[in-house]
């Protein structure tokens, strides 16, 4: 498996609790390297554009409200099989289903306030990285 990049977001529930570093520790311990990072606050338009794939889902409006409720940390992670590795260390969407040792098991509050986002395929990773970072903001 070749070196790959994925988009990670530390969500507002986690920045509110000041646990950004604890989450980065788990990502780094899993062999992922942070090659771009910035803290931002999304507008409604930013969140709607990022989550456009979910716009027909019943949780869309709540998700947009949550993701614009406070600061978030956008990251590009690099490593072997980075998309799958990040999904593995994140754990299941619902923390009640998340495996021991995962970020969501340790930190998520509920199925919505679940602390992290990670791209779900290489194709989506490329799109999401391009939405969030300029090429010269990523230093591998
Ligand atoms: P993510 O995209 O954030 O990495 O999470 P995921 O793939 O595990 O979950 P996805 O199905 O893509 O859902 C995106 C985010 O929407 C919120 N959600 N709320 N209230 C609900 O039933 C519900 N379901 C999903 C979560 O914040 C989820 O991560
Ligand atoms: Mg998803």
UniProtKB/TrEMBL annotation:
What is any one of the record's Gene Ontology cellular component terms?
cytoplasm
Top-rank taxon of the source lineage equals Bacteria
Q: Which Pfam families match?
A: NDK (PF00334)
Q: What is its main location?
A: cytoplasm
Keywords linked to the UniProt accession: ATP-binding, Cytoplasm, Kinase, Magnesium, Metal-binding, Nucleotide metabolism, Nucleotide-binding, Phosphoprotein, Transferase
Biological process per Gene Ontology, one example term? UTP biosynthetic process
Residues that span the membrane, as ranges: none
**EC number(s) given by UniProt:** 2.7.4.6
Q: Where does ATP bind?
A: 11, 59, 87, 93, 104, 114
Q: Name one GO molecular function term.
A: nucleoside diphosphate kinase activity
Where would you find this protein in the cell? Cytoplasm
Q: Which reaction does it catalyse?
A: a 2'-deoxyribonucleoside 5'-diphosphate + ATP = a 2'-deoxyribonucleoside 5'-triphosphate + ADP; a ribonucleoside 5'-diphosphate + ATP = a ribonucleoside 5'-triphosphate + ADP
Per the entry, which co-factors are needed? Mg(2+)
Nucleoside diphosphate kinase-like domain mapped to chain residues: 3-140
Name the residues annotated as catalytic in the UniProt entry: 117
What PANTHER family would the database entry show?
NUCLEOSIDE DIPHOSPHATE KINASE
Q: What does this protein do?
A: Major role in the synthesis of nucleoside triphosphates other than ATP. The ATP gamma phosphate is transferred to the NDP beta phosphate via a ping-pong mechanism, using a phosphorylated active-site intermediate.
> Would you identify the family this protein belongs to, as annotated?
Belongs to the NDK family.
Q: How does it assemble?
A: Homotetramer.
Q: What is this protein called?
A: Nucleoside diphosphate kinase
**Classification lineage:** Bacteria, Pseudomonadati, Pseudomonadota, Alphaproteobacteria, Hyphomicrobiales
Protein encoded by which gene: ndk
């Amino acid at each position: 498996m070749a070196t790959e990049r994925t988009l990670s977001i530390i969500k507002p529930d986690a920045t509110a609790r000041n646990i950004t570093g604890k989450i980065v520790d788990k990502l780094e311990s899993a062999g992922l390297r942070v090659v771009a990072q910035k803290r931002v606050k999304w507008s409604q338009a930013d969140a709607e554009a990022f989550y456009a794939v979910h716009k027909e889902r019943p949780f869309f409006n709540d998700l947009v409200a949550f993701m614009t409720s406070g600061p978030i940390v956008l990251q590009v992670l690099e490593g072997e099989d980075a998309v799958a590795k990040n999904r593995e260390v994140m754990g299941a969407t619902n923390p009640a289903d998340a495996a021991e040792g995962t970020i969501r098991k340790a930190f998520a509050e509920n199925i919505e306030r679940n602390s992290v986002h990670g791209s779900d395929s290489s194709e989506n990773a490329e799109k999401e990285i391009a939405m969030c970072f300029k090429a010269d903001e990523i230093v591998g």
